[in-house]
């Protein structure tokens, strides 16, 4: 992929570690000003792809262009124009909140006066202005995450890479980070993120790819992926564990044949993928099936993710 408007363009991108292929020949393009997400189970190749985009790990094969520059030959120039939010905060806990920004700015050759001004603006942006003189160590996890995001913006990057931006945060902190990232996108900053939270991907991403086994298995907007790989609604029928044990679960599913586009048997419930949840519940009752509880909900990105990558836990 390539052409005008693409800040990131990859063709046939491969990453090998010895005999292991972490990324197996992917094509992708990230447009200027969009929020683009990588979803996938552990070992899918997300982090390896992000490290290549961040120019800290060279591709084994393929072409990769970042900000119009060849990643293989212009790594330092590209890194100088990127903002990076790593999965683990790497703040200097002995310094103050303000010092973490102003000292980091020196790595980019930013004059002291400019660094002070930008740091004050960024602390206001991430709602930490009142903590400027505080040390980092006692800050909450959410505050540290917001400070890490502020630090990634010191060099006024056109492109920000975020690896699991809200992992480990409580719901209030996550929503505040989402709101700050949304404001960044409104300013025209291009965001590329990995996340394990499907609701985060739905909230933040204009487009995303689902990776599995080093390959891209689906690409599109969250709504387009849901429309393509799931149904409008899902009916969850919850049963006692013994009711769905072994062949019993399959028998109940067989009783419901024809009521949904797809029926999935889980250890404690059946999932019925359908266009009309309420009508499906009525039909289930008519066939004499009596679950412990019933939930009708809209299809989500999580339904798509699990259909594409499976429910088996990957370590």
Automatic annotation (TrEMBL):
Topology in the lipid bilayer: Peripheral membrane protein
Top-rank lineage group of the source organism: Bacteria
Major site of localization recorded for this protein: membrane
SMART domains in alphabetical order: AAA
UniProt-annotated location(s): Cell membrane
InterPro entries, per database record: AAA+_ATPase (IPR003593), ABC_transporter-like_ATP-bd (IPR003439), ABC_transporter-like_CS (IPR017871), P-loop_NTPase (IPR027417)
Domain ABC transporter: 8-238
Pfam family, one: ABC_tran
A biological process from GO: response to antibiotic
Entry GO CC: plasma membrane
Keywords on record: Antibiotic resistance, ATP-binding, Cell membrane, Membrane, Nucleotide-binding, Translocase, Transport
A molecular function (GO) term: ATP binding
Family matches, as PANTHER family: LINEARMYCIN RESISTANCE ATP-BINDING PROTEIN LNRL
Protein name per its UniProtKB record: ABC transporter
Organism field: Actinocatenispora rupis
Lineage of the species this protein comes from: Bacteria, Bacillati, Actinomycetota, Actinomycetes, Micromonosporales
């Amino acid at each position: 992929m390539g052409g005008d408007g693409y800040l990131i363009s990859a063709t046939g991108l491969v990453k090998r570690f010895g005999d292991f292929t972490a990324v197996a020949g992917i094509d992708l393009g990230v447009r200027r000003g969009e929020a683009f997400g990588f979803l996938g189970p552990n070992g899918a190749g997300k982090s390896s792809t992000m490290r290549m985009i961040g120019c800290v790990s060279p591709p084994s094969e393929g072409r990769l262009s970042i900000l119009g520059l060849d990643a293989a030959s212009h790594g330092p120039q590209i890194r100088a124009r990127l903002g990076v939010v790593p999965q683990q905060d790497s703040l200097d806990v002995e310094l103050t909140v303000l010092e973490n920004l102003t000292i980091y700015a020196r790595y980019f050759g930013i004059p002291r006066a400019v660094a002070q001004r930008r740091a004050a603006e960024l602390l206001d942006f991430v709602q930490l202005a009142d903590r400027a003189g505080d040390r980092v160590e006692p800050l909450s996890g959410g505050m540290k995450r917001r400070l890490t995001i502020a630090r990634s913006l010191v060099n006024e990057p056109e492109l920000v890479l975020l690896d699991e931006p809200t992992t480990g945060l409580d719901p209030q902190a996550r929503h505040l980070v989402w709101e700050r990232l949304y404001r960044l996108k409104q300013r025209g900053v291009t965001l590329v993120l990995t996340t394990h939270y499907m609701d985060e991907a739905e909230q933040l991403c204009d487009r995303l790819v689902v990776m599995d086994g080093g390959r891209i298995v689906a690409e599109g907007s969250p709504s387009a992926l849901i429309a393509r790989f799931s149904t409008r609604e899902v009916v969850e029928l919850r049963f006692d564990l013994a009711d769905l044990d072994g062949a019993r679960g399959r028998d109940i599913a067989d009783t419901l044949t024809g009521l949904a586009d797809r029926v999935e048997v889980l250890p404690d419930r059946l999932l019925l993928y359908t266009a009309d949840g309420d009508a499906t519940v009525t039909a289930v009752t008519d066939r004499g099936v009596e679950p412990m509880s019933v939930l009708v909900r809209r299809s989500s990105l999580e339904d798509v993710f699990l259909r594409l990558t499976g429910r088996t836990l990957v370590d």
